[in-house]
Amino acid sequence: MTACKTNRFSKLMCFCLYVTISISYVTELWFFVNSILLSGDVELHPGPDTSSSQTLSIYHWNLNSLSVRNFEKVNLLSAFNTLHNFDILCLSETYLNSGILSDDVNLEIQGYTLVRCDHPSDTHRGGVCIYFKSCLPIKVSNVTILNESLLFELKIGNKLCSFLTLYRSPSQSNEQFNEFLENFELSLDNMATNNPFLMTVIGDFNAKSKNWCSTDNASTEGTEIEILTSHYGLSQLIKEPTFIINNSKSCIDLIFTSQPNLVTESGILSSLHPNCHHQIVFSKFNLQIYYPPPFEREVWHYQYADIDHINQAISDFNWERAFAEKDVNHQVLIFNNVVLNIMRNYIPNETLTFDDRDPPWINNKIKKMVKDNDCILNKLMKSNNCLIIQRKLIESQEKLRLAMEKSKQNYFEKMSKKLNDNHSRPKSYWSLLKIFLIGKKIPCIPPLFHCNKYITDFKEKCELFNSFFATQCSVIDTNSTIPTNIVSLTDNSLNDIIIESSDILKVLMNLDPNKSHGPDMISIRMLKLCHISICKPLIIIFKNCMNHGKFPSEWKKANVVPIHKKGDKQLLKNYRPISLLPICGKMFERILYNKLYPFLEQNNLISQNQSGFRSGDSCINQLLSITHEIFESIDQGFEVRGVFLDISKAFDRVWHEGLIFKLKQNGIGGNFLKVLTDFLTLRKQRVVLNGQVSTWKNIDAGVPQGSILGPLLFLVYINDLPDGLISNTKMFADDTSLFVKVLDMQNSARTLNDDLNMISLWANQWKMSFNPDPSKQANEVIFSHKVKKPLHPSLFFNNSHINETTNQKHLGMILDNSLSFENHLQTVYSKVNKSIALLRKFQNTLSRFSLLTIYKSFIRPHLDYGDVVYDKTYNASFHAKIEKVQYNAALAILGAIKGSSTEKVYQELGLESLKSRRWMRKVCLFFKIYKLKSPSYLWNYIPSVNRNYQLRNHGDIPLLKTKNNFFRNSFFPSAIIEWNKLDINIRCSQNLNIFKNTLLKFIRPNCNSIFEVHDPTGLKLLSRLRLGLSHLREHKAKHGFLDTTDPTCVCGQDNESTKHYFLYCPNFSNERTTFLNQIVSIDADILNDSDTNVVQSLLFGKPILSNHENTLILTATINYITSSKRFDVPLF
């Protein structure tokens, strides 16, 4: 500590000398600046320019909680930034913790990336975060020396800029402040280590100095911070009060920089919220930033297409003469030109410019209100009558908050109405729903870090991506050659096919019109508009292709779009290509596929070990097979060794000569083989990004990504990999796994090592590579329930030791070494739990139908995946934990209060419990396996007794022999038990749909109807009353609310029950009179029933009334609830 004080004393002396020298410099500078100002070329008090600027801009705001009132300040930040367009947003006192995830939709600011550092206690206090434009190459340091701070770097050209944003609590003790100061110094040392061109520190320091603001009294903390920052050559830019409350003003939100000469503008802007007394501090630096340019795209208005003239034009065109004596390549070029010209003549189209969008609810009125706040703040800074202007500023900030809230609500109400109007049109509905969920976002790829520099130009990015992707499509040189002898695997052959117009029409009608087109610009929607007439030219081209064994060159060109996988977005390796191919070429591929796949299946040419890309098979089927054999082995007292392999860039590395050889082995020949050969060769691709395109590059290896035939051709190529292997081999496309039951440890290890060696030899022969990526190394899991686990002999692959792991993610499920599935379920739980925030976000805007659709389509599938595999095998506590996810989702959809009856909540929405759903899905899958024998390898696990007889005559399926509950609770033993419990008539259902619908009648409750009511807020209150848990005192007392122990109504006449509220409470007499008159006008007899039945009818409608009449009753009930204002007060 003594050394530290000595160090500070020396810094103080340096600081005094620094101030003395600076006085003469400042005097000279004053005369210089004053002469410039007198010239009239610059403004006296420049504020931030609202036009699009190329200079680097940053601001800080202590916003006193980012999540309060449904994240309303995020919307204010969006509005503010729409006007001012800052590059980096630094926020303090965010009050975020681990319960609010960074990818929560409520935290999203369009076009920005969020990074945060919460308070170390992980409570709702303190904390900092930054939002930065996603196009900026910012790197955030993983090293946090100072609590509640973020250190990040930005490289602009060859200039390194280092930033630190922080928050210092005003309640620090002397000891805590000394610790802060030491860590602050270490942080500055860390920043200075790389000798940055610019150092900037920004944040809420809660410290004052007269040198920063002349109206402030210096604090001890301020003096110490000033000394320390000056030692690093940092100048403080903010000279006005930043914290204003009542008559108190102080400058405690500060910006320090090492390059004040680069500052073009700095100062303060108005706080955006009346409850936030910290103003916004900002600075702009004369450093050029590159922003993504807008780009143009041709947009077609298909709804206004002149379909009759399109079909007439295509039918009248003389295709035979145009195609005469032309090869297929010329025919396709003619076809493309003619079709596009016809489409342009009869489909309205225009070229639109696309750019990053402002949030749609931020309008010019809101932008003006933000400006007005800044003007009032400027007046406040200059005025002596502080309280009057301060009150005016607070009023203006509140108006902005309310205007933002209303504008956003109006936008969502408008969108919600559109959704409600589009229930009968699924495509329109889903398009609108996607806008709701993810917005109309333009994909943003930040600057790419390559060869120690950042690539910002989009044309350069395109070329860089194209080179990278094309390099992946190369054959590994192993010096192997094609075998000289072709051993045919079948006596049958596929040499040629006959193509009919009906084949083309069938393929065309099954195409998804929402899929993107390829480089030829011909879309699926265009082809569907003329589906009959377009078959004529297409059948000529398709037949010509078959007759000459050619695949047109234009159909072998692909537009490639880079899609981020995971990891750093600035690195090429973290992107994968999505290829967009010409639609007509994919149609021809589908016709070829429809002939090739049945031929391979009917001749048993695809290995039974392969589950990928096969009709009737799936990831879940293979997982059932793997886990069943492990369960059974453990039940018998044995361990199972499993090895998981991955082929590197499998689809991109296929050796064309080797694939053609294997196609010949499988009986493919003649013109069919020639077409496939031509399909594979001389392919080209280019990368398309933000309206920019790269040059074309040749693709020399691999099966085409995005094609119809590619996956099937890959199966042919890899099909012989398991030949000769002794281990139980499972393949799903390129994912390969080996399993051995350990009867003897030495023999099992020998078997696996021999098989791994054979796979290595196979890979060498066919120029493939397994697991070269360090992040995807071959792993082993030893599945066992033994208390004392023996030490097994090592396994080796490609001369490397295979690591043993306790968990392995395989086909989307985490398999742990005891098959408890706890890690998998915990991952699912964490992933799905955060999605419920999406439902809460739109709770008051979207209809119940839309919210339920979001849950069933985007959330529940995560819970469904693999449920038949893990059902009954995991710890019982997870059952309740997973069920709670659905319960919370249902509460969010209904706007119900936690504690509401699960049974009533599910009935309100017509949801079956997840436990019942797993039972139903398990029995349905068993029906498919047993009755349809699909897939056959799973059918073989079912006991063979009476298998070939009708169950109606021969009763139940024999149970599998099990020793313990571990195996007994797994899929096949438990499914057989549940199957045998079913009524014989249900088991004999004619098809799977009938069987499933019969089961659903048992498990799915009848949904409580809301008829045609679409008022989200009103329905929320109605549902709470239906569920028996609302603001009413009897409800709260019954559920143990601490603030309501007495159920008596405030009127004092009776308990405040639902009946009392609707029928008797004198506090709502006027509203009730209007309400009941409306009800009687709908149904004159409704009030003649018992009180209980009357309340039931008011809440749920009457079964004997029409849909329209019940809609009127529920609407009247909601009007009474809202007009009574009983539920306007907070619940607690």
Describe this structure in words.
With 1132 residues, this protein is an alpha+beta fold. Helices cover 45% and strands 15% of the residues. It has 38 helices and 32 strands. The strands form 9 sheets. It has a 6-stranded mixed beta sheet with strand order 3-4-2-1-14-13. Helix 12 crosses helix 15 (583-602), helix 17 runs antiparallel to helix 18 and helix 36 (1069-1082) packs antiparallel against helix 38 (1107-1124). The protein is globular and about 100 Å long.
What's a quick, concise take on this entry?
By secondary structure, the protein is an alpha+beta fold. The chain contains 38 helices and 32 strands.
Spatial extent as radius of gyration: 35 Å
Poorly predicted regions: 1-53, 949-953
What is the beta-strand fraction? Answer: 5-15%
Number of helices: 38
Q: Which structural class should the secondary elements be placed in?
A: alpha+beta
The profile of the biggest β sheet is:
6 strands, mixed
Order of strands across the main sheet: 3-4-2-1-14-13
Mean pLDDT: 88
Helix content: 40-55%
Shape: globular
Question: Care to count the β-strands?
Answer: 32
Query: How far apart are the termini?
Result: 50 Å
Structural features:
single chain, 1132 residues, alpha+beta, six-stranded mixed β-sheet, 38 helices, 32 strands, 45% helix, 15% strand
What's the SSE blueprint?
Blueprint: H1 2-38, E1 55-62, H2 68-84, E2 88-92, E3 112-117, E4 128-133, E5 138-140, E6 149-156, E7 159-167, H3 174-192, E8 198-204, H4 220-231, E9 235-236, E10 243-245, E11 248-250, E12 253-257, E13 263-269, E14 280-288, E15 295-300, H5 307-316, H6 319-323, H7 328-346, E16 349-354, H8 364-382, H9 386-421, H10 426-438, E17 448-450, E18 453-455, H11 458-472, H12 501-509, H13 524-529, H14 535-548, E19 557-564, E20 575-580, H15 583-602, H16 619-635, E21 639-646, H17 656-665, H18 670-680, E22 683-689, E23 692-693, E24 697-699, H19 710-718, E25 728-732, E26 735-742, H20 745-765, E27 779-783, E28 796-797, E29 800-801, E30 803-804, E31 807-810, E32 813-816, H21 822-841, H22 848-864, H23 867-870, H24 876-894, H25 902-909, H26 914-932, H27 936-939, H28 951-954, H29 965-968, H30 971-981, H31 984-987, H32 992-1003, H33 1016-1027, H34 1033-1038, H35 1058-1064, H36 1069-1082, H37 1091-1100, H38 1107-1124
